[in-house]
Amino acid sequence: MKYGFSLVVRGNDATPEAFLAMAQRAEALELDALWCSAHIIIPPQVKSDYVMVPGRKHGEHWKERYWEPFTLLSYLAGLTRRITLGTSIIVLPMHNPYEVAKQVAEVDQLSGGRFILGVGVGWFEEEFEVLGQDFHTRGARTDDALALMKALWTTEPVTHKGRFYSVQDAHFAPKPVQRPHPPIWVAGSSKAALRRAARYGDAWHPVRPSYAELRQARQELAGYLEAEGRSPDSLGLAVKLPLVFQDGPPADGQFPTEGRPADMVAAIKRFQELGAEHLVFDCVPEKLSVALDTMERFAQEVRPLL
User: Three-state secondary structure along the chain?
Assistant: First the structure.
């Protein structure tokens, strides 16, 4: 099992000094990865539910600042030596896939092959509208973009003919260090997302699933993987969860990784039994002091018991 933590990339605590402090602490503690979430612009939320907690609006600190992940990860690539760096996640259909493929390849080069690309289709319809992107075709465009990006990373010259993106006999370099390309983690729990993970993903990346949801999705994934000619063990499982230390066990409505160290150990072992190979932890609230303390306590009080 590998363990990573989300960087504080939004709110007034998100500064270059904070990124460096988290990276230095994570490497000193021999954690496995650091992760960036991403939004480009935060328009008023008038019709979209926050996907992680339906019915809740996004945090006010999102409006203070929200860093672009490839710039930030390029910065950290030069300041770290061992830790994996990745996106959890970027909303791929908000972007030009040629540019994303270039950014991925270059961060992978700058980090010496330490990059993982986590992608999703997004939920924030108002953001799509501001960016001039079609919200309703986002799934189909993501599928086409992933196929295109794989071609850009693995072939030379590049030819791809898709519904939304086409190119013929073009040249694209540098290629990524990792072969055939950096791992792709596909987020989302819909049937379309599961099919996308089975077709294009190296891992499925659900956000805050229950044990029951994870079991059901794994059963569905087995069928989708079979249809793609893949074995069930060819797709990894990387789960994103909040990690919150508190005096008592998880309360109603909390996740099993919100509690005492013993509660966290039991939850992590349960996720591992369900197939998880990598956990991505969100620190709550998103403050630098909380993130540093949570990483330290995890390394000292939880990881030795696993």
Answer: CEEEEECCCECCCCCHHHHHHHHHHHHHCCCCEEEECCCCCCCCCCCCCCCCCCCCCCCHHHHCCECCHHHHHHHHHCCCCCCEEEECCEEHHHCCHHHHHHHHHHHHHHCCCCEEEEEECCCCHHHHHHHCCCCCCHHHHHHHHHHHHHHHHHCCCEEEECCCCEEEEECCCCCCCCCCCCCEEEECCCHHHHHHHHHHCCEEECECCCHHHHHHHHHHHHHHHHHCCCCHHHCEEEEEEEEEECCCCCCCCCCCCEECHHHHHHHHHHHHHCCCCEEEEEECCCCHHHHHHHHHHHHHHHHHHC
Pick out the chain residues at pLDDT < 50. none
pLDDT at position 57: 77
pTM score of the predicted model: 0.96
Residue type, 260: R
Task: Give which of 207, 204, 251, 208 is closest to 225, Cα–Cα.
Answer: 204
Range of the domain at 292: 2-305
Q: What is the CATH number of the domain that holds 117?
A: 3.20.20.30
- Number of structural domains found in the chain: 1
The C-alpha angle with vertex 153 and arms to 231 and 187, in degrees rounded to 5, equals 50
Q: What is the pLDDT of residues 25-67, one digit of tens each?
A: 999 999 999 999 999 999 998 888 776 666 677 888 988 999 9
Read off the amino acid at residue 122.
G
First to last CA, the chain: 9
CA distance 90 to 68: 10
pLDDT in tens, 64-93: 999 999 999 999 999 999 999 999 999 999
Residues linked to residue 194 through DSSP beta bridges, in sequence order: none
